[in-house]
């Protein structure tokens, strides 16, 4: 008589490595990262997998993190203190949480603020920060423009970031940084539509005034030249206010079409040539009205005689 067969036991699931060994889950993940955070951000699946979409998103955030990390290291060496960072248009706060997990949690007294207009995203970020014990991570449900006058925020900041902050939100982030005497900007602009609207307003007049108006006669070209001109003016504006500006690609164009990365470090040298060229461009494109609103310039006596390289 055969003995009764034993039921087949299911193979045990592989244990998920602890947070200190998060990089064992996928080579893209950095050592020491919180597995729980990566799962909450839906970068890792529940069983610790990294899908293609998450891999692309993680690559963008890491690439931007490398630029920010370098800036923060420079500031710490030069200033020798803890510092504050404002992340404008924070969205789901992928960047903010990874910044905190990799950098801020190792710096006592340093503070990170996320600014976002969508209340449901702010509530989720607050809950996640509380769950992970990220005590020095704060979120505010206001627009970038409104945040400048908030009493809850410090009077000065060291770094301002804005990753794909739409249209004028990038300009508001710049205005915030200038008001807060920020030491460095990290900006990835998106959906620059304001200048295109201004170009459309006086298109017929400009077509008779200058042949350059052919650059934005057709609607598609209006959008493209408006986007390009917006970022050129932003760079000149930052140089006029004493920043050294570098423009580069964030990631390859196959990953994102909104790919321009503007890095600005404060040097205190307000360039007269930048002021002159900014004014000349606004005049040439019929946008002088923006000098009183979007691109307010420092007084001439506060600008040096240094020319642009």
Structure in words:
The protein starts with 34 loop residues before the first helix and ends in a 25-residue tail after the last helix. It is 39% helix and 15% strand. The protein has a domain at 81-295: Rossmann fold, CATH 3.40.50.150. The protein has 309 residues and is an alpha/beta fold. It has a seven-stranded mixed sheet with strand order 3-2-1-4-5-7-6, with helices on both faces.
Concise overview:
The chain has helices spanning 35-40, 52-79, 94-102, 119-131, 144-147, 169-179, 194-201, 203-209, 219-240, 272-284, and strands spanning 84-88, 111-116, 137-141, 159-166, 184-190, 243-249, 260-266.
- End-to-end C-alpha gap: 94 Å
- Biggest β-sheet description: 7 strands, mixed
CATH class of the domain at 81-295, named Alpha Beta
What would the CATH topology of the domain at 81-295 be? Rossmann fold
From the helix content, strand content and strand pairing, which structural class follows? alpha/beta
Radius of gyration from CA coordinates: 24 Å
Order of helices and strands: HHEHEHEHEHEHHHEEH
List how many beta strands DSSP finds.
7
The number of helical elements comes to 10
**How would the global form be characterised?**
globular
Helix content percent band: 25-40%
Ranges where pLDDT stays below 50 over 5 or more residues in a row are 1-20
CATH superfamily of the domain at 81-295: Vaccinia Virus protein VP39
What's the mean pLDDT score? Answer: 84
Strand content: 5-15%
> Strand sequence of the main sheet, in spatial order?
3-2-1-4-5-7-6
Q: Please tell me the CATH architecture of the domain at 81-295 by its name.
A: 3-Layer(aba) Sandwich
């Amino acid at each position: 008589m055969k003995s009764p067969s034993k039921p087949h036991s299911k193979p045990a699931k592989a244990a998920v490595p602890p947070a200190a060994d998060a990089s064992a889950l996928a080579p893209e993940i950095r050592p020491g990262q919180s597995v729980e955070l990566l799962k909450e951000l839906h970068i890792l699946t529940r069983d610790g997998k990294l899908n293609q979409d998450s891999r692309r998103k993680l690559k963008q955030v890491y690439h931007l993190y490398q630029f920010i990390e370098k800036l923060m290291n420079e500031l710490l060496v030069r200033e020798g203190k803890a510092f504050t960072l404002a992340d404008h248009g924070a969205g789901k706060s992928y960047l903010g949480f990874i910044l905190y997990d990799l950098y801020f949690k190792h710096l006592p007294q340093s503070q990170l603020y996320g600014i976002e207009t969508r209340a449901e995203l702010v509530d989720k970020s607050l809950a996640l920060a509380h769950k992970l014990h990220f005590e020095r991570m704060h979120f505010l449900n206001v627009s970038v423009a409104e945040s400048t006058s908030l009493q809850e925020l410090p009077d000065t900041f060291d770094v301002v970031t804005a990753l794909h902050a739409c249209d004028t939100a990038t300009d508001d982030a710049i205005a915030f940084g200038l008001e807060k005497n920020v030491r460095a900007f990290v900006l990835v602009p998106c959906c620059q539509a304001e200048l295109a609207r201004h170009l459309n307003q006086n298109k017929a007049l400009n077509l008779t005034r200058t042949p350059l108006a052919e650059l934005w006669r057709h609607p598609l070209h209006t959008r493209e030249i408006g986007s390009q001109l917006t970022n050129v003016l932003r760079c000149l504006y930052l140089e006029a206010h004493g920043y050294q500006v570098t423009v580069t690609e964030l990631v390859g164009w196959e990953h994102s079409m909104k790919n321009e990365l503007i890095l600005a470090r404060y040097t205190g040298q307000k360039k007269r040539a930048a002021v002159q060229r900014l004014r000349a461009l606004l005049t040439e494109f019929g946008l002088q009205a923006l000098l009183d609103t979007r691109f307010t310039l420092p007084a001439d006596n506060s600008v040096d005689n240094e020319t642009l390289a």
